[in-house]
Amino acid sequence: MGALLEDPYRAQTHPQPCTDTPWPGVECELSNSNQPIFHVTKIHIGPDIVFPFQPCKPSAYLSQSLMKLKYIKTLSIFDCFGASPVILPKTLFGPFTSLEHLALENNPSLCGDIPTSLGGVTGLRSLGNNSLSGQVPPNLGSLPSLDQQNISHNKLSGVLELPGDFIQKLGKMLDLRGNSELCISDQSKKKNLSSYLEIPSCLNTRQRNDNNYFAGTVATQVHVHHGQKIYMSSYLPWF
């Protein structure tokens, strides 16, 4: 939590977040072992935590110490990363065999590719309103129990390769809007999905790019006359 929150005294004021000094947004469960131990199972950071709300610090980042939370089930971070760039490490969520729900939303400086390791998170709820780029990993569509997914308003690009049956299963609960460089292929079985998902067809995107052309003249020589450049131009063919 120290890598995220502005409060430098959190550890002193809440030394036992699972018992005597609970911290809003943190939940714990008691293990079933012979020696009972509390394990953190939920971390939620966002402006909806009214009291005592602690904003994220400008240099907030995802600490590798998160990988030590082997029993965490829910991780949600809202409105936190807004200044310093934060990239999702490719293996950050790999060890989270117990992670069931993940939401990282409204973080303008959360950037980089979506790790394929997120395909193992059974409840990948939202990655919306960030600055994530690159392609959408196809294995995000292999989660059988997923009933909604929001990756809207990022900087994603390329061809959407999520399975058609996965797209139809989620319906309007799959939100891909606001990714201007993302398109869907023009296979016959997907021909109606472009308007349904509100993302362009790759065919239309290619046609739009093909219509970009240069016209006019190209400078071939440059002369200097009394300190001013005079361009001698002629028409040149474009290849």
Automatic annotation (TrEMBL):
InterPro entries per record: LRR_dom_sf, RLP29
Gene3D superfamilies found in the cross-reference section: Ribonuclease Inhibitor
Q: PANTHER family under this entry?
A: LEUCINE-RICH REPEAT (LRR) FAMILY PROTEIN (PTHR48009:SF4)
Q: What is this protein called?
A: Piriformospora indica-insensitive protein 2
